[in-house]
Amino acid sequence: MAPLWEAPSRAQRRPTRPIPAPRMLFSRDPPPVRPVRVGSVPAVPGAHPPARHLPGAHPRSVLPARPVPLRRGEGAGPTRPQLPDAPHHRDAARRDRASAMEAAAILYVRHCAAAIFCRRVPPLCPVCGRPLRDAGLLSAPVSLQCPFVHGHRQHRAFLLRPTAGSFLREYDGNSDLHVGISSARGVVYHYNEEGVHRDESGWEQCISVPLVQPDMFELLQQWDQILEEFSMGEEWLPHRYEEHDHNCYTYALAFINSVLTAQGKQQMSKSEFTEKFVIPQTKNASKYITLHQELTTKDFYIVPLPDQEKQC
What is the Cα gyration radius of the chain? Predict the structure, then answer.
């Protein structure tokens, strides 16, 4: 996706000079927008350490451990019983399996007039039973690119994530979403009923919309200063927050428009920004979530191809 701010052409460039002072970038009365629904920011749960087991005991055993062999001359003392397997240990194992499933790539194979999605390419086509190895180049497996990225590694970007949970686990398509703006160091600035937050974690699975081209050196250098000073504005105090009329989307879009104004460009409405930059990303993410959920319980997910794409 093309960045929101593009560098001027060579003919349009003027002699290098610093952008206007930060005070000229911020408007006390940002343009009214109709934000999306938001909710509270959930705390990021910490991972519990795996349970330790005594030597000689089966990891799932609730019986006393077998005695540890003693060296010659040592007295035989009482053996310590094995503790029952803790619930958090089982939860950690489930989280590990879910994380491994999320990390596994989704593959796409075209065969028998159908799109076959899977985690591992089978030797035989699940539709016709013929070998896929000899099916030709058109049936070669292709890895789908995951639309979700690590938000703290996306610099100077508009970020979108579920208010609670993650896209590939808890999100059901109807849950509230939360947005933020990342700094040059990957710190995510976002606004809720507690004011402006500066998160260094918690945005590990996001949809990202890049905002700045890498050759806009002046804006790149001053991005963090502009973002920090904008976030200190009185309109982003906690008591000004309103779930439907003055929320995280209001904050993010007002910041984007302030930079557009400083660049001498026209401001964008919420609907214009959403349709041009956000919806294309969310459509792709929705398709990927559907495939991920189907392949969680199935080995294959088969979709018939349109007539013009059919190829056996």
Answer: 26
